[in-house]
Design brief:
The structure is a homodimer.
Chain A lengths: L7 E5 L4 H13 L4 E4 L7 H6 L8 E4 L2 E4 L1 H11 L11 H27 L3 H26 L12 H7 L2 H11 L10 H12 L10 H21 L1
Parallel strand pairs in A: 1-2
Antiparallel strand pairs in A: 1-3, 3-4
Amino acid sequence: MAGKDDDVKVLGVVVSPFAIRVRIALNIKGVSYEYVEEDIFNKSELLLTSNPVHKKVPVLIHGGKPISESLVIVQYVDEVWAAAPSVLPADPYDRAVARFWAAYIDNNMFPGMAGVLFATTEEERAAKAEETLAALAQLEKAFAECAGGKAFFGGDTIGYVDLALGSNLHWFEALRRLFGVALLDAGKTPLLAAWAERFVEAEAAKGVVPDAAVAVELGKKLQARAAAASTAA
Amino acid sequence: MAGKDDDVKVLGVVVSPFAIRVRIALNIKGVSYEYVEEDIFNKSELLLTSNPVHKKVPVLIHGGKPISESLVIVQYVDEVWAAAPSVLPADPYDRAVARFWAAYIDNNMFPGMAGVLFATTEEERAAKAEETLAALAQLEKAFAECAGGKAFFGGDTIGYVDLALGSNLHWFEALRRLFGVALLDAGKTPLLAAWAERFVEAEAAKGVVPDAAVAVELGKKLQARAAAASTAA
């Protein structure tokens, strides 16, 4: 399994926020990599052996060594290709603030957003949407504090928190199309709404953040499976 | 609120694994700090204003600036007092492995352990104990790989993963006393059982990891509250 040091491979799923942030981080660093699309309904042997604990994408395989968990991978990328533009800020306090908000996105925003998709009643869906909107309201305040008038959480360029949040944008749009739920609403979170437009246009994100239609299709499949499982239970 | 740069304060709860790891990290670094015990049933104004998002311990206040989320704090401590013994390894791949397992402890081991305390039926308690044991079996394998025959996950001294897991040890013992559930079992996870004895004896951990009796007392209170809340619901 040992590979050359410059062998970089990403196992991902095109609509996975967690895979998307890894790919954008590699783009920021100017690292060439081979992208391998996984089928989440039929995972490859390479995925199962590379991430035996969670069996989930993304996995970064660098020089034959696998690394899992998206934020762990992003930090690894930032540390290995340290000479290229930084993802995390340089100052320890600013780094702590960035890590805090990235964790908040994964632990507090993401579960609400996923809940909108997997809700089995309209009541539950509305509650999950409220939860997501409350988290986004926190992130709107965080943006004002972190960006300080600049384009991104990370300042003039995409940084750690931008990656964490921006990798979910196609799902916001997909959930709007699927259920009419407006999560990223210019009326409620104007700074984030404007930031989102800048994010998808950024050079490193282009071609990585997928069209929402792809998320809509997978969303329908995932929802049908969840509904079938809940009926069977 | 601005303070001197060498002003270090920790808001904690004596049995909180998350606060304990922060205190041990500061001890490893030889940093003097003021410890403020919080009452989780009546949180201080300082806690509420220092961590307005989560309103939880631990908070590290350094030179007047608050930092929340235990693993974020531990990394901050490691970066600010960089000249003192390291908590995270130096090599990016080893750092990624350490971050992976620390996240695993918080996301996969801790919820099971907490579930043993808060279970409302014996069936549920047994299921949560099984879940915790499965996570500890993974960590037993991780220990063999990370420590490579040395005393700790971090090698010869306590590191990031040691802090993440070792800060829970008094709860394992408390749950044994409360429910007869053996989570850290020398028969099942002999490496971890021996490691635990070394951990609590390490200089940096002494006086920080509390006696299990304190966790037993708080455990009874928390359980009674949860039961009352579930009856009222």
